[in-house]
Amino acid sequence: MMRIGRPRYAKCACRSTASPGSESSFGGWPCVAQSYNPAAPMVRLHVNVDHVATVRQARRGVNPDPVGWALLAEQAGAQGITCHLRKDRRHIQDDDLKRLVKKVRTLVNLESSLDPEMVRIALASKAQCICLVPENRQEITTEGGLDVAAERRALAKVLPLFARKGQIVSIFIDPDPKQLAIAAELSAPFVELHTGSYANAKGKAKERELERLRKACEFAYDNGLRVNAGHGLDYVNVAPVARLPHVEELNIGHAIVSHALTVGVHLAVRQMLAQMGIAK
Ligand code: PXP
Q1: Residues of the chain falling short of pLDDT 70
Q2: Which of 251, 256, 269 for mutating ligand 1's site (highest number of atoms within 8 Å of CB)?
Q3: Whose CA is nearest to atom 12 of ligand 1?
Q4: Is 144 in the pocket of ligand 1 (CB under 6 A)?
Q5: Would you give the DSSP letter of residue 104?
Q6: Please, what is the average pLDDT of the chain?
Q7: For 87, left (φ over 0), alpha (ψ -120 to 50), or beta?
Q8: b/e map 105-137, b = 16+ CB within 10 Å
Q9: CATH number of the CATH domain containing 82
Q10: What pLDDT, in 10s, does the model give residues 209-228?
Q11: Whole domain around residue 89: which residue ranges?
């Protein structure tokens, strides 16, 4: 298959003003976000803060604040912050998104469904990255990838709108060559490969799922798509995914937020970066 000559690494969208390699104010750890070299072949960690908001929404109060938590995750080395504003507003609220966009120094990756109201909000949000996801009100979390074959027309309509705003779109997609081929035909800049089946599989099935992801990475890259991955990744299963070819960014939420309840945000992020091979 023809390799399309796209650059592998985009210019870093980090808005940090600190000098490269400087230490963060948090416990003297070197700030990975600030020393990150976008030319180096290294996967980035985007931390999903949805479940910080889930805990807050249990009481409909103000604590814990996903924005303050996101800033701590950044100080620990997260290279981006992800959130999903769902139509039912079960965790992240509109005001959280506005405050995240204002305060996050690296970049905000907003997950959005193709629902017209959510697309309007995403377009107006000033989030640097948009990940288009399926959304089903009954689900506990995002279940499968977006069916790009079924959503082809809607995607063809919205992709240029995001491009005009300078927002970088990824489509959350199963590691399926048929779906990937359509994403490539639509000239989507990125896909985020759904790692849920890999995360849930055991034994030989896990190896098969990893191989399916590897093939999907190669197929996507060969067809001009840039590759992110995420869903269900944790401290145990992340390393093989971080080493997959062409993967630029992992979106990880539940495992980091859960671990942070025990060890704190800083250590939870640092330990994930270490498992990904980014930091010690
Ligand atoms: N990527 C996408 C597109 C998602 O919808 C989610 C869940 O919000 C994640 C990654 C993160 O999944 P997890 O919380 O299991 O790490």
Answers
A1: 1-41, 137, 141-142, 280
A2: 251
A3: 231
A4: no
A5: -
A6: 88
A7: alpha
A8: bbbbbbbbbbeeebbebbbebebbbbbbbbbee
A9: 3.20.20.70
A10: 999 999 999 999 999 999 99
A11: 44-276
